[in-house]
Amino acid sequence: MLDNLTGRLSTIMKTLRGEARLTESNISDAMREVRMALLEADVALPVVKTFIAQVKERAMGQEVIGSLSPGQAVIGVVHQELTRLMGEANVDLNFASQPPAIVLMAGLQGAGKTTTVGKLAKYVREQHKKKVLVVSCDVYRPAAIEQLRLLAEQVGVEWFPSSDQDEPVAIARAALEHARRHLFDVLLVDTAGRLAIDEAMMQEIKALHAALNPIETLFVVDAMQGQDAVNTARAFSEALPLTGVVLTKLDGDARGGAALSVRQITGKPIKFVGVAEKVGGLEPFHPERMASRVLGMGDVLSLIEEAQKSVDQEEAKKMMAKVKSGKGFDLEDFKMQIVQMRKMGGISGLMDKLPAQLTGQLGGQLPAGADEKAINRIEGIINSMTRQERSKPELIKASRKRRIAAGAGVSVQEVNRLLNQFETTQKMMKQFSKGGIGKLMRGMKG
Ligand code: GDP
User: Fold this and answer.
1) What is the pTM of this model?
2) Which atom of ligand 1 is found nearest the CA of 105?
3) pLDDT at 66
4) Which segments constitute the SRP54-type proteins GTP-binding domain (predicted)?
5) Which CATH number is correct for 3-89+296-304, 1.10.490.10, 1.10.3720.10, 1.20.120.140, 3.90.1210.10?
6) ipTM of the prediction
7) 79 CA to middle of ligand 1, Å?
8) Looking at domain 101-285, what is its CATH homologous superfamily?
9) Whose CA is closest to atom 12 on ligand 1?
10) Cβ neighbours of residue 357 under 8 Å, at least 6 residues apart?
């Protein structure tokens, strides 16, 4: 994936070494590299232009925080923007319709539609525990119907028989009728593609869409198509109200620019990616992970994330003011800290980063192996408290403890443990208010 981008970003890291602030000129140099890399990776020019402009805007004037180098800071911005470009978060299939939820596949011949129907059938059956029916409306490509029958057999879902003597719309209607009568949850509809976009094909898929009124209309596109993928995506998104994209053959794609373009062009989320020919070779698409993969700089990226999260300066300042104003540190603040801790990889992760001197002082009061679950429980307990209890924890006596424990679905001992942890933290906060939170935060990153 975009090997070149990784290479070029290393150059950026070198170019920007030692600069304390990101400025117009040093960012411009860096952006030239990013721009070249994206174009070489076959990302569409308008997409590249918008992307570069956004990165520039975001990066400009940014302080280079903590231990990061300016180059790393720029890569951080590039990573965030790449994630945004590809849609922020994963979007799963939507089944919120009267059953059966109909999923219509659209795309060029060879894009991987039939294979994807098989993969999706397996995914929906296994992950969503749904009863799936598949049908092929591809009456043109020889053996397309048979190919789907074999796939259905392989993944253990029902296949609705069709023949190349039938009308596509008639097949779809019959399959829908069958799905309704036999209480299928999901109907996956494969359609014909042609080698190039033509009017007849578009009319046919529009007619299928009108007849089925699917809740999902997925555009299947071959990642190896490069620039052409963009044109195809545009044509399909103009013809059909697409709801999502499946990007296939990502395993074979050396450049991967399509992943960056199709989202922008269609305005629809990439829901899945095909990563192998076999039926298991389908993955939900995670923009953030893809951005990391594209940048191929796992280490640098986690370093950046840590630095950005731990130096959540606004929060730290507020907390500091609170401690200084003598108002004290209450359970509400404690909860906020816990949330921060989660961002930093849990309590155990945090313990690793705290200076040894401090962890020694805590004397193992914080559970060493505490994980995500423990953090969730702590949050749950605090959520079960009233506002008054949060600001005056000393109010929490036996009967309140029982109520809180019941509300959070934990034992009273757990509530006690949390209150002890809170007290320890409170002491720690007081201590550090002398040395300053900045010192504490710097310690964490060390
Ligand atoms: P359709 O014409 O759109 O139905 O395309 P097919 O489903 O027949 O796929 C065309 C070719 O691409 C077949 O040889 C598939 O095995 C292959 N294919 C589809 N998806 C993937 C994928 O994610 N990775 C790889 N390596 N091959 C794929």
Assistant:
1) 0.66
2) 3
3) 61
4) 100-296
5) 1.20.120.140
6) 0.98
7) 30
8) P-loop containing nucleotide triphosphate hydrolases (3.40.50.300)
9) 112
10) none
